[in-house]
Design brief:
418 residues; mainly alpha; 78% helix
């Protein structure tokens, strides 16, 4: 019988047709080292879209960051205008409640503020110009007295003519004049920039105050009724706290101005009323550096009367500032704004770190508004009647003290029940 191995390798013919051609040999699949099967190496369809989306998100973030840094000044001006509108909101609302149009009421309030500010600046400018002229006219006498003191103390023979010649021909004076002439353009640019910022703040604050109800309606129209009540409540709290903050600052400005007026009047310094108003307003409404700016001008005017008067003014400014920081300001702020003195101090530091002088100015009303708004939604519980809560832990640790305290608490409970 013939072997079957050769017959199995031959191609078989189908009963309905010719013999089929032999199939091409297929290369055996090589398995990977980890035992997994090979798959078709094709890029997933979602990968290009994901890459495009990631690039778009990165570009959007970069553009948003660049736009935010470019608009930081405008956003800060809008924030100042918002708090300024909150400060004048009570006056505008009272005038509007009596039948006056809200736009006209806002205009009258701004007109009053502008007239008071312009009058104060004009009076202060005329006073400062007069004192500068007086100092220039009396400069030769001051120079003569200084030269005489130097000659008597150090046994020299200086003359005013020699000192003047040396000053006029000195390189320091020539360089200072050149730098001052070059800095005039910078000062002019800063003045124009400040006027533009003031105009921007004024326009936005006028809009916020005049169209306050319309702005609130527009904001509430995109919120559900429950959220609308919360927004209106937060707005009302912000108005109350900002008004309280302005009231406290105005009261401290009045006290500071009166105290400095008494000192300057006692020393015989001219323009004492104007200088008192200057110290009160600048020290309270210009944060961080307001105290130094407020005290510099009275010292300068007092120096024209007598040099030792400037020293007395400096000592009084430093002492009064400590009294105001540690005694007067915490009490007034806690009563009018209803915020703890430590929280007020910390909020000023945090606001200064974030936004500089603007942050220091609006930090207290912002934190007071946030605290009052959260206080309406934070649930509070009754504090347990524990000696440690009342600060009597040392007394409770004495032998026999704790049983007596527990007996007293049970006694009060029984008396309350009866």
């Amino acid at each position: 019988m013939a072997p079957t191995d050769d017959l199995d390798d031959r191609p078989t013919a189908s009963p309905s047709g010719p013999t089929a051609p032999p199939a091409e040999p297929v290369a055996p699949a090589v398995a990977p080292a980890d035992g997994t099967t090979l798959r078709n190496a094709r890029m997933p369809r979602w990968l290009p879209r994901a890459m495009v989306l990631a690039l778009a998100l990165i570009a959007t973030f970069q553009f948003g960051s660049w736009a935010f840094h470019q608009l930081t000044g405008l956003l800060i001006n809008i924030l100042i205008a918002f708090f300024l509108s909150l400060a004048i909101e009570p006056a505008v609302s009272r005038m509007s409640a009596r039948g006056m149009r809200r736009g006209l009421a806002t205009f009258l309030v701004f007109l009053g503020l502008a007239v008071v500010t312009a009058g104060f600046v004009t009076l202060l400018g005329s006073m400062l110009a007069g004192q500068i002229i007086k100092m220039i006219e009396g400069f030769p006498e001051y120079l003569d007295s200084l030269i005489n003191w130097i000659n008597q103390t150090f046994h020299t023979q200086l003359k005013r003519v020699d000192v003047q010649e040396g000053l006029l021909h000195s390189d320091w004076l020539r360089k200072y004049a050149q730098n001052s002439a070059a800095g005039v353009l910078d000062v002019s640019a800063q003045v124009l920039g400040g006027l533009f910022q003031l105009l921007t703040v004024g326009l936005f604050s006028f809009y916020f105050a005049a169209d306050g109800p319309r702005l609130r309606r527009g904001l509430c129209s995109v919120l559900p009724p429950a959220r609308q009540a919360e927004v209106l409540r937060a707005w009302e709290i912000a108005v109350d706290k900002t008004g309280g903050y302005i009231y406290s600052r105005g009261l401290m400005a009045l006290i500071s101005g009166a105290a400095h007026y008494v000192l300057l009047q006692a020393l015989g310094v001219p323009y004492a009323p104007v200088l008192g108003v200057w110290v009160g307003l600048v020290s309270q409404f210009i944060p961080t550096i307001g105290t130094y700016l407020a005290g510099a001008l009275p010292m300068l005017i007092a120096f024209t009367v007598a040099p030792w008067y400037a020293v007395w003014v400096l000592v009084f400014v430093v002492v009064y500032q400590q009294f105001e920081n540690y005694m007067l300001q915490p009490k007034l702020t806690s009563k009018t704004v209803d915020i703890h003195p430590a929280v007020a101090f910390g909020s000023v530091i945090a606001g200064t770190a974030l936004l500089g002088a603007v942050g220091a100015l609006i930090a207290i009303p912002a934190v007071a508004t946030l605290q009052a708004f959260l206080g309406a939604y934070v649930k509070r519980y009754k504090v347990t009647d524990d000696p440690r809560v009342q600060g009597h832990r040392l007394r409770a640790n004495r032998p026999g003290a704790l049983p007596r305290l527990l007996w007293a608490r049970e006694r009060r409970t029984e008396e309350g029940a009866s």
